[in-house]
Design a protein that fits this description.
With 244 residues, this protein is mainly β. It is built from four helices and 19 strands. The strands form three sheets. Strands 4, 5, 11, 12, 13, 14, 15, 16 and 17 form a nine-stranded mixed β-sheet that branches. The chain has an eight-stranded mixed β-sheet with strand order 3-10-9-8-7-6-18-19. A two-stranded antiparallel ribbon has the order 1-2. β7 and β8 form a beta hairpin.
């Protein structure tokens, strides 16, 4: 009905009435709408009308879902496989863990003491798969299947082919598994290892960023603080497929 990325299965005509699991009688409802229907505030005929023309059938991405993060020690982590990228936060300042062509792929900004995330993960065709903007999550609908259970989001590229697994926690976001891209640069996370641009990282602690594309040359010339880490990906490490 509303395109929510989180939903419950529901019998439009109650199971107690039909006593069967007929696929034609089962729909997907946002948990709030499911509750409203269960208690009688949302009529069955309204649900049936929306089921005949689902919101997500004509949309490119889901509606948004709020995510909740905190920064009790004024820092936040993006964990890529087994590699924590730790960000020291300053009020009003955006900090980027992955930057491609001057745009943030993984970034966070502290506003009124709350970390606001910006995440943009794409597939090999540069189509956005997952987006978080100021802690509002949406994901694309062109993928084979999506499952969101607890704090774990799994996106399948095809049957038995998991494309991306992401976990959302209070003080960190973890990309557990999968491939994601940004303007032709590939990032692979598998068995705890992060691989990009011919570099493989496992159980590495970072207080820095990965910079690729148009900003890489300038970034390589900037001085690095003693505690800072920086990975530079050159133009030659961008997939030719992106330009063809």
């Amino acid at each position: 009905m509303c395109g929510s990325p989180v939903f419950h299965y529901d019998h439009m005509i109650e199971y107690s009435t039909v006593e069967e699991h007929d696929p034609e009688n089962i729909t997907l409802l946002y948990p709030g709408h499911h509750h409203e229907k269960t208690v009688g505030r949302l009529p069955t005929h309204v649900v049936q009308k929306h089921n005949a023309s689902p919101f997500n059938a004509s949309a490119q991405s889901t509606g948004s879902l709020p995510l909740y993060f905190s920064a009790p020690l004024n820092n936040f982590m993006f964990v890529l496989g087994s590699n924590p990228f730790v960000i020291d936060l300053a009020e009003g300042k955006q900090s980027t863990v992955i930057e491609v062509d001057g745009g943030p792929v993984l970034a966070v900004k502290l506003a009124d003491g709350i970390p606001l995330l910006r995440v943009s993960l794409r597939d090999a065709d540069n189509r956005r798969v997952l987006r978080v903007r100021d802690n509002e999550l949406t994901y694309a609908l062109h993928k084979w299947d999506v499952q969101f259970v607890g704090n774990n989001l799994t996106i399948w590229d095809a049957r038995r082919n998991i494309g991306l697994v992401v976990e959302f926690h209070d003080i960190y976001l973890q990309i557990v598994r999968g491939n994601f891209y940004a303007n032709g640069y590939q990032f692979n996370v598998e068995n705890g290892m992060l691989t990009t641009g011919g570099i493989a990282l496992s159980n590495q602690y970072f207080n820095g960023s990965i910079i690729a594309g148009t900003g890489a040359a300038a970034a390589s010339e900037r001085p690095i603080q003693e505690s800072e880490s920086r990975i530079i990906l050159r133009e030659s490490q961008r997939s030719r497929r992106f330009w063809n």
